[in-house]
Write a structure and sequence with these properties.
single chain; alpha/beta; Nitrilase/N-carbamoyl-D-aminoacid amidohydrolase; 6-stranded mixed sheet
Amino acid sequence: MMRAALCQIPCALGNKEENLSRMERMLSKREADLYIFPELFLTGYMVRDEVFRLAEDIDGPSVAAVEKMSSEVGSPILFGMAAWDDELPGVLRNSAVMVSPDGNVQRYDKVNLANFGPFEEGFYFTPGGAPAPMEANGMRIGVVICYDLSFPELSKWYALQGAEAIVCLSASPVTSLQLFERLVPARAVENASYCLYSNQAGTQLSQVFFGGAEAAGPGGERLAKAAYFKEDIVVVELDREAVRAARRGRPTLRDSLRGPLGVGRTHPAGSDIFK
């Protein structure tokens, strides 16, 4: 059993120190085994070309500050930030970073950048090259970022690699509220996994982010729902046995290997995702 805290708190746009302070305050509110903050939480989403000034390396001061917090609460912290690529100079990524109490840092770079309507991510970020499974307290997690959730093949890939929960960090405005409230249970049902959604809340420039963090169980049932538009935190218990039972009862992963996308594919050696 793992307790995951979905944390939504309005960001101070462009003020990393203040956002880290707000993160620390949020951590003191509830006990959890994993704390999850939204997409680009460190800077806020609507920083536009200021993102180049605000971005940091993974071994920079902000991640070090989160590492200290993680050590103090004894649980991993997952959050969004603008991060420079580890190997390609000048390449900026929209990243999800998980920092653990032992100092271990895991990272996923957003593959599907939103570059339409009010979204301008393609002006600033380079897409990530591949998904990156993570682990928290023994539970396997597939992290996606906002628009990524619209691509079921990405979540399916994670599930076929053994992910028991799909975790989405989001910066979604109110115009996308109904869309994401449909996507979260859909990804859960398709993969017989938990699906957790942590969204920005409040107003940044012209965008109003709806908050509304939520969690769906492996049968698509809603397990938790945070308030709209304002600060809130909800804690949900994730039971690995519930995932195993759902995959036995509705074997979508097993049967994914039989369809056109699964021809010639096998699940990872030693994986227990079908047990």
